[in-house]
Design goal:
Blueprint (H helix, E strand, L loop, with lengths): L4 H8 L30 H4 L9 E8 L17 H17 L1 E8 L1 H13 L7 E5 H9 L21 H7 L21 E6 H4 L8 H7 L4 H10 L16 E5 L4 H7 L5 E3 L5 E3 L5 H15 L5 E3 L10 H6 L3 E7 L13 E4 L13 E2 L5 E5 L6 H16 L4 H9 L7 H12 L2 E2 L2 H5 L4 H8 L6 H26 L1
Helix pairs in contact: 3-13, 3-14, 17-18
Length: 483
């Protein structure tokens, strides 16, 4: 019996028939909007590799974040059901493989430095590392991480790996960064839109946003129209202050979810996986960028810009929580701070560019959490087996992924079924751009600045083009060298 089993059984009375999150009976929801998240049994798990590794200690380096889902290990059942599920997940894998799972937690900067020092010393001390994709990319180009080609036991055809995201983050086909149900903190980074449903009902003639989502008509124009309708001078002083009502409150970082949600990207890759910045030459990107800049950032009376009004000390979250904005452009990880709001909260995807756009798209920023495997590992087969088991166990009914969704939606007032359906859809439509990870030529910083100075769009992008191309070439050379 594993080191955690006795404590586990005594503490929560785990029974074999209890398969749901936190000990609830699983109802086998399938969530038709997100096929990759269906709870399947039988053959799906039949070929998960096994083994016995002589009480080997498998150690993760893990950057500390604000995410409640970022831990890779826990020695206690205290806390929420997500922590209990993590405890059970690791205990099951430890028993199956005869290993002990541990993690070293520290700030992102220190975890990066520890990983670099360990690789320079050629230590087989840490098996894998979790950190922001931006930090992980520096490890990859330095030759400190291996690609998926070296991990034979990791089956990327399985639904517990987010292979599409891994391919998007890859450069020239080299997949150094992994995403999946092994650690759910990357789910927190998915962009979404919150809506105050109680506030919305005070205005006649406004469409139900859930109906718009279902019909494919939840577009940027639809959102802007609803924002315009709720603008109000609440305190009656004839001035625009944070105490009034706005369509939304935002900062410059919120432009990226709206851009990607509208179906445009900063960079594109050719058939060989070689990226190039295309935002300066794409007519679709230019038109979308200008629309967002002019209608949301150009002193729009329906928008409260938290950066322009920095002196107020009011965040987008504060504006939404205190009923001063109808919408809240945010990420899933930010929802925990809204659980005590007294109004009914609704989860929406980021709006599409037009209703003819096929899918809703959720942007993932460059600081999204990613997994990497240390190149100094002496037994990469064993590493792959451990990672595959942890990811598969997290995907099972009642596992980490299911409990994560339950945790996210634990609001006082929320339309559970529609919000759950939309949330699964959001988690199934995430997208990541290597340009956001590597920030070639400072492109992300430049675009944020241009949101409030769109008139110099072309000249500013032209000024960084040469530096961006040089940095892309440096990245490609590093990838070719260390693959």
């Amino acid at each position: 019996m594993g080191r955690k089993s006795i404590c586990l059984l005594m503490a929560i009375g785990l029974a074999a028939e209890l398969t749901g999150c936190g000990g609830k009976q699983s109802e086998g929801h399938t969530y038709d909007t997100a096929a990759d998240f269906r709870l399947e049994e039988g053959e799906l798990f039949a070929d998960v590799p096994s083994g016995s590794f002589d009480e080997y200690t498998f150690t993760f380096l893990n950057a500390r974040t604000g995410s409640t889902a970022s831990n890779m290990d826990t020695d206690t059942l205290e806390g929420d059901t997500l922590n209990e599920t993590l405890y059970r997940r690791n205990n099951n894998v430890e028993e199956r493989l005869n290993i002990t799972i541990e993690e070293v937690r520290d700030t992102p900067e220190k975890i990066h430095d520890i990983a670099v020092a360990s690789c320079l010393a050629d230590e087989d001390k840490y098996s894998a590392v979790w950190n922001s994709a931006a930090y992980m990319s520096t490890l990859a180009v330095a030759g400190y991480l291996v690609t998926d080609e070296y991990l034979a036991a990791v089956n990327l055809s399985k639904p517990w790996w987010k292979t599409a995201l891994m391919q998007e983050a890859a450069v020239e086909g080299a997949q150094f960064l992994f995403f999946g149900d092994i650690n759910l903190s990357y789910y927190d980074a998915h962009s979404m839109v919150g809506v105050n449903m109680s506030l919305l009902r005070n205005y006649t003639g406004l469409s139900n946003p859930y109906d718009l989502v279902d019909s494919g008509k939840w577009t940027l124009d639809a959102m802007l129209s609803m924002m315009d309708a709720v603008d109000a001078d609440i305190d009656g002083d004839g001035m625009q202050t944070w105490e009034d009502l706005y369509g939304t409150a935002l900062s410059s970082k919120d432009a990226f979810p709206l851009l990607y949600g509208s179906g445009v990207r900063i960079s594109q890759k050719d058939e060989y996986g070689i990226p190039a910045l295309t935002c300066s030459t794409s007519e679709a990107f230019y038109n979308t960028f200008m629309k967002i800049a002019e209608q949301l950032y150009d002193r729009n009376p329906y928008v409260y810009d938290t950066e322009i009004n920095e002196a107020d000390g009011i965040s987008s979250r504060d504006m939404f929580l205190e009923r001063h904005s109808l919408f809240y452009i945010t990420d899933i990880g930010s929802l925990g701070s809204l659980r005590d709001m007294d109004d009914e909260f609704g989860v929406l995807p980021v709006p599409k560019g037009t209703e003819y756009q096929e899918d809703y798209i959720s942007y993932l920023p460059g600081n999204v959490s990613a997994l990497g495997v240390m190149a100094t590992g002496r037994n990469l087969l064993r590493t792959g087996i451990v990672l595959e088991n942890l990811a598969a166990e997290g995907y099972r009914p009642g596992g980490m992924r299911e409990c994560y969704v339950d945790s996210v939606l634990s609001f006082k007032y929320v339309d559970d079924e529609k919000s759950r359906e939309n949330l699964y859809g959001i988690l199934n439509t995430g997208t990541i751009d290597p340009a956001a990870i590597y920030n070639w030529g400072g492109i992300s910083d430049t675009l944020r600045e241009l949101m409030r100075d769109a008139g110099v769009f072309s000249s500013r992008l032209a000024s960084i083009e040469r530096a961006a191309e040089a940095q892309i070439n440096d990245t490609l050379e590093a990838v070719q060298k260390y693959r």
